[in-house]
Design brief:
The complex is a heterodimer. Chain A starts with a helix and ends in a 15-residue tail after the last helix. Chain A is elongated. Chain A has five domains: 3-127, HPT domain (Four Helix Bundle (Hemerythrin (Met), subunit A)), CATH 1.20.120; 156-346, no CATH class; 375-434, Helix Hairpins (Orthogonal Bundle); 436-614, 2-Layer Sandwich (Heat Shock Protein 90), CATH 3.30.565.10; 619-753, OB fold (Dihydrolipoamide Acetyltransferase, E2P), CATH 2.40.50. In chain A, β13 (619-627) and β14 (630-635) form a beta hairpin. Chain A contains 25 helices and 23 strands. Chain A is an alpha+beta fold. Chain B is α/β, with parallel strands linked by helices. Chain B has helices at 12-24, 35-45, 61-70, 88-97, 109-119, and strands at residues 4-8, 28-32, 49-53, 79-83, 101-104. In chain B, α2 (35-45) packs parallel to α3 (61-70). Chain B is globular. Classes of the chains: A alpha+beta, B alpha/beta. Chains A and B meet through α1, α2, α9 and α14 of A and α1, α2, α3, α4 and β5 of B. Chain B: It comes from Hoeflea alexandrii. Chain B: Keywords: Phosphoprotein.
Chain lengths: 768, 121
């Protein structure tokens, strides 16, 4: 894995965090007071900032930082999450998303957008008493990081003077002239001498720090002389094995500055006393000598070579010249004098031997276990299962053909196989099923943006966002949904003034909902706006030549005019609704998904757009029928009922139209074979079967086919991808006998029957 | 002998960066996604040093450190806190919980390795 791949992961993660951020903010907006919600929101921003920092995405970092700071105020209850603040935060989340996208794809975000929000966020953070942070000394860790000069660090012990007495210490020759000038501490080549007094407290060890490691770190800076002072060491019966009894006197000769020396103690400065003075303190080092040899344990020079695998300290170099002073000391001082350097290690050993106690783990709900799988793998599996389904069907068919009567064992086995295949298919499809939530969440942002641009007040309410649908569908509904949401805010909802005039709440409500209905997902976009202005729509359609002035249209027909290509009711083309990109495009893309869209509208009350989509684009339950010796598949979801027409039910209407009487109503009869040009004449309805289908506009049609073969699930193979788009045909499939069957595009056929020619971009028949 | 590092961080990005950086530096790595998992992994992996984030779901870094310190086997294990918080308040809390030291994000590999070597024998 290289950094580019990690960066890719980072952007994926950003997507998730941004979704988390937005949904969290929306929950807060809805009055959620769970502290964990604020925490999750904070973590999302924090996480983005952390990753962005690692990749040097400075714009992202600085904005995230300001955002995070304000969130932190909310998190620590220093700032109330008011509705106004949440609005600012939601907009900030949008900008954060844009900054992330800009970092990923290149491009920039207008600095005016960020700077305005930064100012607002900062004002919120400052408007309340600020936390008294940064009062404690915060060492600048990043700037002061030592450059461990491992390559050329001289072995300190080797250069240390030969010990000559029991204390094992002899001061180095040192020129006091060096101390004369205050700023002239240099010995040679810019090297300075510091004296460090370091007295750890027991907390230092409790936190996993160790004095010896500090000394080792210090040794990386230059030459050390170390003396361990054990004045405070109690007698063994009083000794707390985890106590801190030793202090260290250290002389450092280094080419680095005092800051570098101090930095070594960064982790322990709270748990110890550290005094660093420039220059050598010969007196202090000399002191033990003055005290004489009767207190050998009071000050033990410390041999760094005791530290294993410290490259800077050469044990070989130290040993012959300096006969291990610390090792010599025990002879005089007794065993416990070995304790100083090893104390923490001993504590560890004790800890290790101590009976293992149960770790206290706060009870938390188990998170659902998930794995991330490359989509390609799932797709391959889905394809394979598709083949399996076909294969199973072929096997079943050949058994039926070859075994007259059939052995019940084989048939039973086949039935089980069919059931298992079906279950495998469902399970595999479930892998790819995703809640529509992420798409719905994106709509929140669209609504906010357009509300801002149009100066309308809009509240988006989402329902059923956990409704699952195949990923292939999810990927494709975002765009039409965006258009519809834009349209709903731009055209559907009124301005606050107009709403108030009409006696409505100034804030318009947009309801976005999803639900499963008979094997399809139905997504509704409902606004409580003015509804479709039918007079205006009609006038516009006449003006554009879409309908004749005297056309007699039902309300439904007029409403459906807005799906006509190029139709736009906005008096002026606004930025939002785009230029000619209107509901016709929406309709086309939904149809391309095998979906339908319809509208119902009530003047003054609002409009509801309903789109119904297949749950998956991979399989389909279909009715296999014969039309003019061709095998076709009609999607089961489109079929309301099937019936065998009687001669008396059929009525002619005009030169070519025929109607069928079904329970008191007349329904246009559509000869599929004729429409698809399988045959030029019209079939006799009495010889065939009528499939009553419901088309997107709500009207019913009776499709005439020659015979019904059966009902089965088929795997959809795209005609467009493998061949070319064929009008009236949605896709193809492979049947059990290995033959290709075409899947009928019911809506297209119904539309064609209304007099419109079958063409790939066939649209609504406006003139009915 | 390779030193074993337990990293605890909820960010996939950071986990991967730690993995790559520490792998390249010759460490053994075990990883956890939050404090709760961290305590579980700790039991089975017996690491030499722990690097943990602060802000995590379920159990944050402070709670995790306290949990580690309550475990007799690990009460003296070096724990480095990996966090973007450079302010003293967070550091103090981490220290009080028992952190050994810290690394300020964004970290560069050398800084991370230096900090780990600094606290491990």
């Amino acid at each position: 894995m290289d950094m580019n791949e990690i960066k890719e992961i980072f952007f994926q993660e950003c997507e998730e965090q941004l979704a988390e951020l937005e949904s969290g903010l929306l929950r807060l907006n809805d009055g959620d007071t769970d502290p964990e919600t604020v925490n999750a929101v904070f973590r999302a921003v924090h996480s983005i900032k952390g990753g962005a920092g690692a990749f040097g995405l400075d714009d992202l970092v600085s904005f995230a930082h300001v955002f995070e700071t304000t969130l932190d105020c909310v998190r620590s209850n220093k700032l109330e999450a008011s509705q106004d603040l949440l609005k600012v935060m939601l907009r900030s989340a949008d900008v954060l998303a844009d900054l992330t996208a800009a970092s990923r794809d290149g491009g920039t975000v207008e600095s005016s957008r960020t700077s305005g929000l930064v100012a607002e966020l900062e004002a919120y953070a400052k408007g309340q008493p600020l936390p008294s942070a940064s009062a404690a000394p915060a060492p600048a860790p990043a700037a002061a990081a030592p450059e461990p000069a491992q390559a050329e660090t001289p072995a300190p012990a080797a250069e240390a003077p030969e010990p000559t007495d029991d204390s094992g210490f002899q001061p180095v020759p040192f020129s006091f002239d060096a101390l004369d000038g205050d700023d002239d501490l240099a010995i040679e080549d810019g090297r300075s001498v510091f004296t460090v007094r370091f007295k750890p407290r027991s907390d230092l060890y409790a936190k996993g720090n160790e004095s010896v490691l500090i000394l080792r770190e210090l040794a990386k800076l230059g030459d050390l002389q170390v003396r361990c002072e054990a004045d405070d060491l109690p007698s063994i019966d009083m000794l707390d094995p985890e106590g801190a009894y030793f202090s260290w006197l250290i002389r450092v000769e280094t080419d680095q500055d005092e800051e570098a020396v101090r930095h070594v103690f960064e982790f322990v400065e709270w748990d110890s006393t550290v005094e660093i003075t420039a220059g050598a303190d010969e007196e202090a080092f000399a002191a033990p000598d003055a005290q004489g040899g009767d207190q050998p344990m009071a000050a033990v020079p410390f041999d760094l070579s005791l530290l294993e695998d410290v490259p800077a300290v050469s044990a070989e170099a130290a040993a012959p010249e300096a006969p291990a002073p610390a090792a010599a000391a025990p002879a005089a001082a007794g065993d416990e004098s070995m304790a100083p350097p090893n104390l923490p290690l001993a504590a560890k050993a004790i800890a290790a031997e101590a009976e293992k106690k149960e770790t206290v783990v706060p009870a938390v709900p188990a998170a659902p276990q998930t794995i991330r799988v490359d989509l390609d793998r799932v797709d391959r599996l889905i394809n394979l299962v598709g083949e399996l389904v076909i294969n199973q069907a072929m096997l079943a068919q050949s058994v039926v053909e070859n075994e007259s009567g059939g052995s019940s064992a084989v048939n039973l086995g086949l039935e089980e196989l069919q059931q298992l295949t079906r279950e495998i298919q469902d399970s595999v499809m479930a892998i790819r099923a995703q809640p529509v939530k992420p798409v719905f969440q994106r709509m929140g942002r669209i609504v906010r943006e357009i509300a801002d641009m149009t100066a309308k007040q809009v509240r988006l309410v989402t329902e059923g966002e956990n409704t699952e649908v195949d990923k292939t569908v999810i990927d494709k509904i975002a765009e039409p949904l965006t258009h519809m949401i834009r349209n709903a805010v731009d055209h559907g909802l009124e301005t606050p003034e107009k709403r108030t005039e009409a006696g409505k709440n100034a804030e318009g409500v947009l309801r976005l909902s999803a639900k499963h209905r008979s094997g399809r997902i139905v997504i509704e976009i409902a606004d409580d706006g003015a509804g479709i202005n039918r007079e205006r729509v009609k006038a516009k359609a006449i003006e554009n030549g879409l309908i004749t002035a005297d056309a007699n249209l039902s309300d439904e027909d007029i409403d459906n005019l807005i799906f006509h290509p190029g139709f736009s009711t906005a008096d002026k083309i606004s930025d939002i609704s785009g230029r000619g990109v209107g509901m016709d495009v929406v309709k086309r893309s939904i149809q391309a998904l095998g979906g339908r869209i319809s509208i119902t509208s009530k003047p003054g009350k609002g409009s509801v757009f309903t789109m119904s989509l297949p749950l998956t684009l991979a399989v389909l339950d279909g009715m296999v029928v014969t039309v003019a010796n061709q095998t076709l598949v009609v999607p089961l979801t489109a079929i309301v009922e099937t019936l065998q027409p009687e001669k008396s039910d059929i009525h002619s209407f005009g030169p070519s139209q025929r109607l069928i009487a079904i329970r008191d109503t007349f329904c246009p009869l559509v000869d599929v074979g004729n429409i698809l040009n399988f045959r030029s004449d019209l079939a006799n309805p009495v010889d065939g079967v009528a499939l009553l289908v419901e088309s997107e506009g709500g009207g019913q049609r009776a499709l005439m086919v020659d015979a019904i073969q059966g009902q089965r699930q088929v795997v959809i193979k795209s005609l467009e991808a493998n061949y070319t788009n064929v009008p009236g045909i949605a896709a193809a499939t492979i049947l059990g006998d290995g033959r290709v069957a075409l899947i009928l595009d019911v809506d297209a056929v119904v539309t064609a029957s209304r007099g419109q020619p079958l063409s790939p971009d066939m649209m609504l028949a406006a003139t009915g | 002998m390779k030193k074993k590092v337990l990293t605890v961080d909820d960010s996939r990005t950071i986990r991967n960066m730690l993995l790559v950086t520490l792998n390249n530096a010759g460490f053994d790595i075990v990883q956890a996604e939050d404090g709760v998992e961290g305590l579980e992994v700790l039991e089975e992996s017996n690491p030499d040093v722990i690097v943990t984030d602060i802000n995590m779901p379920r159990l944050d870094g402070f709670g995790f450190i306290e949990g580690v310190r309550q475990n007799d086997r690990y009460r003296a294990i070096p724990i480095l806190v990996l966090t973007t918080e450079s302010d003293a308040e967070k550091k103090n809390r981490a220290r009080e919980a028992g952190a050994t030291g810290w690394i300020v994000k964004p970290f560069d590999p050398s800084k991370l390795i230096a900090a780990i070597e600094r606290v491990t024998a």
